[in-house]
Specification:
By secondary structure, the protein is mainly alpha-helical. It folds into two domains: 49 residues, Arc Repressor Mutant, subunit A (Orthogonal Bundle); 142 residues, Tetracycline Repressor, domain 2, CATH 1.10.357. The protein has nine helices and no strands. Helix 5 packs across helix 6, helix 5 runs parallel beside helix 8 and helix 5 crosses helix 9. The longest helix has 26 residues.
């Protein structure tokens, strides 16, 4: 007979992992510290995940999947890259407002050399950046010399850095406004259009 899954324990494990990654980085969040914070035995955690890497990949994939699906949808329905980027930024800001720990989690993992995004996710992200690049070349919003890497840096990394600075009150402004989104969109499009 299969074992029953205690969803509350799994949620506690996932929440504990996110919290510890945000506060201590990938290397500073061990299986034992995650289990302790979640108030479960390490063995319980290993029932569902073979390693810390598996757990963190699952958490990251779940968070990125929402953004990837949003971007796929935007590529299909939007006529311009400007519209895609603006609506993606709105999604980033909404996520930061509703689940700030999730944005922090993504940000920490993006900058932690001890963690690598799995190949499947990396290929999906590159493919989406290729689609944005192709649309931008068709609409003449993106310079033909730009690359997928530049799309990612400008349309994903830059807004996440911006949000992170706001969350840390770096310039004493915590909230993000519609004006911020408009300015960020214009900055990104102008940057991608320059040769």
């Amino acid at each position: 007979m299969p074992r029953l899954v205690d969803e509350t324990k799994l949620i506690r494990i996932k929440d504990a992992a996110i919290e510890l990654i945000v506060s201590n980085g990938y290397g500073g969040a061990s299986i034992s510290s995650i289990a302790k914070k979640a108030e479960v035995a390490e063995g319980y955690l290993y029932r569902y995940y073979n390693s810390k890497q598996d757990l963190i990949e699952d958490l990251l994939f779940t968070r990125l999947k929402v953004l990837i699906e949003k971007l796929e949808h935007l590529i299909e329905i939007c006529d311009t890259v400007s519209e895609i980027i603006e609506r993606l930024f709105i999604r980033f800001f909404d996520l930061a407002k509703k689940n700030p720990e999730h944005i922090k989690f993504i940000h920490v993992l993006m900058h932690d050399y001890n963690f690598q995004v799995e190949d499947r996710q990396r290929k999906t992200i590159k493919s989406l950046c290729s689609k944005v690049l192709l649309k931008g070349k068709e609409t003449k919003e993106i310079c033909p010399k730009k690359t997928e890497e530049e799309i990612y840096l400008i349309a994903v990394t830059y807004p996440l850095e911006f949000i992170n600075m706001r969350m840390k009150n770096f310039f004493n402004k915590n909230s993000c406004t519609k004006t911020d989104i408009s300015r960020l969109t214009n900055f990104c499009i102008n940057t991608l259009n320059q040769s």
